[in-house]
Model the fold of this input.
Amino acid sequence: MSRVRLLVGTKKGAFILTADGKRKKWEVSGPHFAGFELYHLKGSPAAPDRLYASQTSGWFGQLVQRSDDGGKSWEAVDNQFTYDGTPGTHQWYDGTQHPWEFKRVWHFEPSLTDPDTVYAGVEDAALFRTKDGGKSWQEMPGLRSVKGHLWQPGAGGMGLHTIVQDPTNPKRLYIAISAAGAFRSEDGGESWRPITKGLVSLYNLPDPDAEVGHCVHRIAMHPSRPTTLFMQKHWDVLRSDDAGDSWHEVSGNLPSDFGFPIAVHAHEPETIYVVPIKSDSEHYPPEGKLRVYRSRSGGNEWEALTKGLPQQDCYVNVLRGAMSVDRLEKCGIYFGTTGGQVYGSADGGDSWTAIVRDLPAVLSVEAQTLS
Amino acid sequence: MIRVVLPEHLRRLARVGPEVPLEVPGPASLAAVLDALEARYPMLRGTIRDHVTRKRRAFVRFFACEQDWSHEPADAPLPDAITTGAEPLLIIGAMAGG
Done:
């Protein structure tokens, strides 16, 4: 029988939540790496018990952990992320140039086919890769050569937080950075071009043709339609049907089009999910009601999903890496909050239950479907 | 024999007890002790000092014989009580935060 494993990164450790295919009873394992921030954990699609975890600390810096048994045991692997050549500078908040400095790994994206190959998105924004299961990391410096001197941090730092692989074309990758924008590679990450045509960021980018500087929060793709992308930007929800060459807004009737995560249903490529947040200065749901919004038409028409979610006095946030779907026949969808709840739905979002309620603030949620 | 006391988080990372005994070749300095520590426990590389610059991480402190050695030159000889093992070298996570 199929099972689901949720890899949950929090401000004070990692938790692994497991359930059978009914997804009614969950076992909670953790905290793993207690006391550390776990920005992201992700399993290899090619070998699901191979997990990679980004473990960070203000005291002791970046650590990388790897598991080969689904999280029962872990081994620290290489934690050295050295920028290629002379790192150079990027734009700072005051408009001056600031040296590139490694701070942490925001995101791991294991290869779709090789458990030993993993992409790492880091702050200050850059893309690294290991080909030996984490024994060593090398920067893919072509990305920062795309006007890197004009990139600047968002309020949460300049992190490369999204890495999307095209399952039909191993040479094609998409990445997104706050607040540098979105980029595509057609040669396996060696060279990149901005994919920001159609993005509008009125108050921080007066130039309507600006190629970099957009605060992209998340990009999602359904594997059956790799040229259709969905984006949650700082403000605006958008879609592209030409691999990012152009974007158009699909915020439609959302109560707010600010938010962080965006996800696509496992079996319905036009069904997408967002969690509207009131504004960039008020990082909580509008009206104190925690609502996931679902569009079955690829955007524009949205319905609020509220059953089982708090509909009063709720002031949590849902971060960009904290929403994920499983691939069971009835698609499950999960998200974690800064209040420490992980909510799950086993019916595509129609109804929700709190799998756990009192974890540390949740930074990331990744769902694995196991056979 | 030099005795090194690690903070709790790094003990768990290195899977060691409260004290790590180390043989340090040559004149024992902070740099030499950290070199020996990282050679024996490679998972500690980058957690106490930067991989490249070798500078102490901002919120890590060194104490020897009840003295703060955090700002001493990395190649300064450690006190005899440390090099003989009479006293441990303490590596601690600084009080920080709010």
Observations:
- The radius of gyration of chain B is 12 Å.
- Chain B is about 20% helix and 20% strand.
- The interface with chain A takes residues 7, 9-10, 13, 43, 45-48, 51-52, 57, 59-60, 93-94, 96-97 of chain B (CB under 8 Å).
- Strands of chain B lie at 2-5, 19-22, 60-64, 67-68, 89-93.
